TrEMBL record:
PANTHER family assigned: SLL0939 PROTEIN
Record-annotated membrane-spanning stretches: 35-54
Keywords: Membrane, Transmembrane, Transmembrane helix
Pfam family, one: DUF1622
Protein name (record): DUF1622 domain-containing protein
Domain of life the protein comes from: Bacteria
Length: 106
């Protein structure tokens, strides 16, 4: 499932990137592509962590529990930083949209 999500996300990002070839550089389009790809990665990390938890719950051993703890910590930190980046980008995007709605200042 995780591989399919990431494959779809990668295909979507590649399609958006290829669609921009030959056009004027558009920073907003690049950021939007990154934003959508980041959202897919967050979803994939959630599914991967859930799968690891289920796997350890089915056949627990101290070794698998230790590995799960390490993997869960790393994935949780990755997810947290990625979500912070997404929130920051989203705030900037909303501020730009709001400024465009107000129009040029006189």
């Amino acid at each position: 499932m995780v591989v399919l999500l990431l494959a779809y996300a990668a295909l979507e990002a590649v399609a958006n990137t290829l669609g921009a070839i030959g056009k004027a550089p558009d920073l907003d389009r690049r950021r939007e592509t990154w934003f959508r790809f980041a959202l897919w990665i967050v979803l994939a990390l959630e599914f991967a962590l859930a799968a690891d938890i289920i796997r350890s719950a089915i056949a627990p051993s101290w070794n698998s529990i230790g590995q799960l703890a390490a993997i869960a910590t790393i994935r949780t930190l990755l997810n947290w930083f990625l979500v912070k980046d997404i929130e920051s980008y989203n705030e900037k995007r909303e501020a730009r949209a709001e400024a465009q709605m107000r129009g040029p200042r006189e």
